[in-house]
From TrEMBL:
This is Carbohydrate sulfotransferase. The keyword Glycoprotein applies. Its EC number is 2.8.2.-. It comes from Phrynocephalus forsythii. It holds the Pfam family Sulfotransfer_2. The keyword Cytoplasm does not apply. Keywords: Carbohydrate metabolism, Glycoprotein, Golgi apparatus, Membrane, Signal-anchor, Transferase, Transmembrane, Transmembrane helix. PANTHER family: CARBOHYDRATE SULFOTRANSFERASE, CARBOHYDRATE SULFOTRANSFERASE 9. One of its GO terms (cellular component) is Golgi membrane.
Amino acid sequence: MNLKLVYVSLLMFGVAGLLLFMHLQAWIEEQPTRNIGQESEEKVQQQAIPQVFRFHSMEELERITKHRITAKHLGIPNKALKDSVHSQEDGSPFLGLPGSLIPGFSEEPQKITLLLQPFKQVVVPPAMNKMSISNNRWKAMGEMQEKRKSVLRNVCRKHVVSEEKRPPIQLLRMVSRIYVEDKHKLLYCEVPKAGCSNWKRVLIVLSGLANSAANITHNAVHYGKHLKKLDSYDLKGIHMRLKAYTKVIFVRDPLERLVSAFRDKFEHPNSYYHPVFGKAIIKKYRLNADREALATGSGVTFKEFVKYLLDSHRPVGMDTHWEQINKLCYPCFIDYDFIGKFEHLEEDANYFLRLIGAPEGMAFPHFKDRHATDKRTNSEVVQRYLAEIPDTERQQTYDFYYLDYLMFNYTVPYAQP
């Protein structure tokens, strides 16, 4: 009897153990299968995200922007590209191209289009507080802004924005002169000799880095690295700011700007422009130059400077202080919300500061940044300098800045000195 009980007990224990083993084996076999499935799904998701939201590093971006995109690559007829200059319904910060595409980009349009898909719905109007500007004076200035932008668009449509006439341009180059002020969502394109030093002071104050523009030195403005440029951001940051921020440019009569640059860089001691530009200019354009002039680069005349400017084989390259504005800020590709003029600098600037909601009482600085005792370069001063060069060179200098004169509606300058 005891043997039967032992036998039955052993049999039941064995059956229970077998059932437990089978259950455990089934669980073990099921567990790794589920983990592999989860890992596989996670990998698919990780691969899918970069396809839609991946942004290129600066190194990749530089490599990509060596290629160009044209109407042919986009599948846009030439006429359609030209006629689209005035179409801003998609909120594109670029004139003449769809909002999802940036001019000057890769020959892989599908890749670029996919790259920019997340931003197609980001259509944020500039923070221009026009409701706060009610009196007649400000109203007249607002109307003037619309006229300036209309003139610019018409010139761009006629002379620049078409596939045949439009040179391919890299994105990073287009935005390389644009400074960013995130607090007030502001993009300022720097045009040297058009109030840029004081404008950068204003940006520093607006950003909260200083209480007053008067306390910011010239070196702090230009070498302090307090401000970021738009090309320092990744593609996402660049495109977002171009769409959402208020874009402003201040311009100046081109020949007045040219003379101002010459006076600043060559008529005063300068440890950069004299040895770099002055020596090369004197060596090529001055007959029987003495050793001191060749060694120091000091004493360049305006006539020699103009010869350098007009020479297609310059001994030294261009400089931003006398480069054409259309090659600094690309106003036919970037749709600027505000066009100010140096000739009305304080009035235009203070109007703009009210529009963007700058702190109450803040005004644009009116002091001269450098060489404070020198007379400001005006039409009278320009006439005096132009008298030093022959009529043919005076006309050629105007031709050099022809597009700038048209774009910003300056009159034909100084026909007779």
